[in-house]
Structure prediction request, 239 residues.
Amino acid sequence: MSGASSNGHRLVLFDIDGTLLSAGRVARDAILRSLQASFGWSYTPDHEDRGKFDFSGKTDPQIVRELVLEDVGADRFEKGLPRALEIYLEELERQLLPGTVQPKPGIEALLERLAAEPRVTLGLLTGNLERGARLKLAPPAFNRYFPFGAFGSDSADRYLLPPIAVERAHAHCGRRFEGKSVVIVGDSVHDVACGRSLGVRAVAVATGITSVERLAAERPDAIFESFADTERAFSAIVE
Ligand SMILES: [Mg+2]
Prediction:
């Protein structure tokens, strides 16, 4: 089995929004425009009140579903979803201008450190559609760190994404990662919970909209205010 097992190696899977970067209101605005164009659906303050605008930890198809399903009905939703996501990606591409993407504190140094470590394989684990993910990662030139990943375009259910990422890691580098050799890094309670459901390690970072206290309640293996301290973050991730 030598060379094929995960012994000593780590598969480190990064969430994007709130963890690697912030795209400000660009993604939210792109979604709202796409829903207007595809379903004639418009945002009202009532939607905000119902908590539908907490997108963190959700997949793009799930976000669209939660926003419009009640208002447009299941039939129109199913029929309109592909077009809505297509318009969303076009809007995202149009609106992601230089300066709209802010990398999170310390993340670039941490990615450099992890990429230079031979025992680490890096991947993405994100609710973004793959094309949307690649668009967001392009301005800070982060795509080069992530040759593969599992995306919202693979499944609308975030909890089904980790096994897909593990399969792609195997296809990419020939290693079978399992259990604690897989590390999920994210800023939402869903990142931590979807890690726990698989017995993998979860490292939480409070650089998104979720507080340290709220993340701590999900009992991640490690938790950070930010990744500003590269060595401390690196040690917790590859532990
Ligand atoms: Mg996130």
About this structure: The first strand starts at residue 10 and ends at 14. The chain has two domains: 10-23+102-238, 26-95.
